[in-house]
Amino acid sequence: MSAPATTTAPATSGFRPIANYDRPLWQRLLLTREAAIIGLFIVVVIAASAIVPNFSGQITMTYLLLDMFPILIIALPMTAIIVTGEIDLSVASVVGFSSVLTGVLTQAGVPFGLTIVIAIVAGILCGAFNGFLITAVGLPSLAVTIGTLALYRGLAVGLLGTTAVTDFPEFWTGLAKAKIGSTGIPVVMILFVLLAAAFAILLHFTRFGRGVFAIGLSPEAARFSGVNVARTKLLLFALSGAVAALAGIYYTLRYGSARGDNATGMEMQVIAAVLLGGVSIFGGRGALHGVIAGVLLIGVLASALRLANVTSDVINIITGVLLIAAVVSSSVFAAFKNRRRSGPKLRLAGTPGTGAISVAGSSAPRSGAGS
């Protein structure tokens, strides 16, 4: 009879539980970056209402939502783009270009309904051009969109020069500023809710959305899994252009002016809000509810500071600090989670001629006897 051989259960060194399901439901809902941003947004609203005079009034809420509407809708496709590991810095220039195009076509007597369609199609072409250079030519999105940022802004300024178009149909300008009954909520927020629902379904509940996250985690693995990486990115950039053009039309009607410098610098507000909302700048992670909370947090903070007579320079500094904090905290949080999940390394140790095998670091080995 030979001595009994003691063995441990087979183990795989690369095994790791699925992140979304290795904790209780309440932890998965509350202990997230998105939940933290929503909580911070609520705290800022309560503090601003208590400290800043007139902040809690209906008029403040109305103008806050009117001001944040273009950023809210542009942040929706921007979220998906950054999840794939890319970025689009040209969105504000597309807003300005579509604004100028709206003014030029209106001045030429084109029916305004057709003007809206033409402007949105132009935005789609701008976004698709970005996507083509990135996916077909293979250029980095940062370099491409910096270039097209200057290109589209140059086209906008070239079409109108230093002049501005200010004559638009009263029905459309009134609709851009209209409120839902006596609630103080702008009518355009209905459009935002519809767009947010559509993008949430697309990103979080469809095969296409799963492909977006897979691309952000590993484009090569996504490609081998059957995801058409190039087509997905091209579609996302085209969607970004379409939504930016829609924001440009709204911007024109909201302020009653089409100028080549409209929405200058808006791209930084959008990107800051997306990153603050929990989207990883490295791709592969993010959720729309956190992004929406991030946009509203920046808007509420800026509005409260303006009412408190804080200068725009200080507001920009605070926004920049929030952006840096969001990027740094995202990296620190990811490193902490990876360190917590990494278990003890496996080390096989055996004694020659005995058939006994042990695994170092195993806290609960299983034993089996044989004769």
UniProtKB/TrEMBL annotation:
Cited Pfam families: BPD_transp_2
GO molecular function: transmembrane transporter activity
Coiled coil: none
Membrane topology qualifier: Multi-pass membrane protein
Keyword list, A-Z: Cell inner membrane, Cell membrane, Membrane, Transmembrane, Transmembrane helix, Transport
Keyword DNA-binding: no
Residues annotated as transmembrane: 35-55, 61-82, 112-135, 142-165, 185-205, 234-253, 265-283, 290-308, 314-336
Annotated Gene Ontology cellular component terms: plasma membrane
Compartmental location: Cell membrane
Keyword Cell inner membrane: yes
PANTHER family to which the protein is assigned, alphabetical: ABC TRANSPORTER PERMEASE PROTEIN YPHD-RELATED-RELATED (PTHR32196), AUTOINDUCER 2 IMPORT SYSTEM PERMEASE PROTEIN LSRD (PTHR32196:SF71)
Name of the protein this chain belongs to: Autoinducer 2 import system permease protein LsrD
